[in-house]
Specification:
This is Simple sugar transport system substrate-binding protein. Keywords: Signal, Sugar transport, Transport. Pfam families: Peripla_BP_4. About 35% of the residues lie in helices and about 20% in strands. Helix 1 packs parallel to helix 9 (about 275-285) and helix 6 (about 195-205) packs across helix 7 (about 220-230). The chain has helices at about 30-40, 60-70, 90-95, 125-140, 160-175, 195-205, 220-230, 250-260, 275-285, 325, and strands at about 20-25, 50-55, 75-80, 100-105, 120, 150-155, 180-190, 215, 245-250, 265, 290-295, 300, 310, 315-320. The chain folds into 2 domains: about 20-120 and about 270-295, Response regulator (Rossmann fold), CATH 3.40.50.2300; about 125-270 and about 300-325, Response regulator (Rossmann fold), CATH 3.40.50. The radius of gyration is 21 Å and the shape is elongated. The chain has 10 helices and 14 strands. The structure holds alpha-L-arabinofuranose (AHR). Alpha-L-arabinofuranose binds near residues 31, 107 and 191.
């Protein structure tokens, strides 16, 4: 996958570059790396932009400092990928007072006044979680295990991030609909491979082979969890001891889905560069962009036992991963 519509020079008629300050969450995952690359590729000098890129290392205080710095530098636009949803009112008011439009990307902000930001584009994280839970339900039924007692552990993302809130909520909704599903524990893996592994090691010590399903809230957590499960002598996969579910569908995540280590991988698309640029181009023309825009995303599985899932009355195709899908 790649940005395909990059490349229109939008610099203004006097030839000045459009100055964009981007506060990025960090570099915690493969998804994040792809997202940063997408933003850098789109907001290049040859496309008419001067990009000031700030990596906040997963700390909100660093993001607030970066936004204040962008205001001081009098950028034309501030783009924020917020680490968590809350705590933005003050600094976004400062940007508004300075007359700088703020575009939120990826995760959402939870603010008292929606007028504190201009537009948002990102994923429907709760829908992603509901798709995953719907697949688990359909898979277990197709495998003749619909009535079995199922124990699930949730390795959550960064607590308070939209991606964690939505994916956890989607799973909880599924658990609430099944009296035979038990959510043994929810604990954060901070969206990183190292923490995913560490958390899984301790869950295995606590619950051992009682665990049937490991619901990882991103691919990097899944990579760490799989390492821990295999090191403890268990087999992952639909024909193994534990089913691993994941989100993102990065290249490495889909490769693990193709091999069967990850049974279900729900896409979270990171290629937001051109989507943010569309918002900026709309504003440059003096028009009003959509306030909120969800990205369409797919579902990838190891096998073909569940061709589609239904969530809130809508059907979503489940694609069996092949090498061509990854390429
Ligand atoms: O907000 C998107 C999430 O953040 C991705 O699922 C994850 O990999 C990243 O760290």
């Amino acid at each position: 996958k790649s940005d395909s519509t990059v490349g229109t020079d939008v610099s203004n008629s006097s030839g000045d570059l459009i100055k964009v300050g981007f506060s990025q969450v960090g570099a915690e995952s493969d998804w994040r790396t792809a997202n940063s690359e997408s933003m850098k590729k789109t907001f290049s000098e040859e496309n008419g932009y001067e990009l000031i890129f700030d990596d906040a290392q997963q700390k909100q205080e660093n993001q607030i400092a970066a936004i204040r710095n962008f205001i001081q530098q009098d950028v034309d636009y501030i783009v924020l990928a917020p680490v968590t949803e809350t705590g933005w009112d003050t600094v976004l008011q400062e940007a508004k007072d300075a007359g700088i439009p703020v575009i939120i990307v990826d995760r959402m902000v939870n603010v008292s006044d929606e007028g504190l930001y201009t537009a948002w584009v990102g994923s429907n994280f709760e829908l992603e979680g509901k798709k995953a839970a719907a697949w688990l339900d359909a898979y277990l039924k197709a495998a003749g295990k619909g009535e079995d007692s199922i124990n699930i552990v949730d390795i959550q993302g960064t607590i308070g991030a939209s991606a964690q809130i939505g994916r956890t909520a989607g799973l909880e909704a599924g658990v609430n609909e099944h009296s035979n599903w038990t959510l043994l524990v929810k604990t954060t893996g901070e969206f990183t491979q190292a923490k995913g592994q560490e958390v899984m090691e301790s869950l295995l010590k606590q619950y051992g082979d009682k665990i049937d399903v490991v619901y990882c809230e991103n691919d990097n957590e899944a990579f760490g969890a799989i390492d821990a499960i295999e090191a403890a002598g268990y087999k992952v996969g639909l024909d193994g001891d534990m089913i691993v579910m994941s989100f993102d569908s990065t290249n490495a995540g889909l490769t693990d889905t193709l091999s069967g280590k990850i049974s279900l991988n729900t896409e979270c698309n990171p290629l937001h560069g051109t989507r943010v640029e569309e918002i900026i181009k709309t504003l440059e023309k003096g028009e009003t962009p959509d306030k909120k825009k969800y990205v369409e995303e797919e579902i990838f599985s190891f096998d073909n036992s569940v061709p589609s899932v239904t969530v809130d009355g809508t059907d979503y195709t489940v694609t069996q991963v092949t090498q061509e899908v990854i390429d």
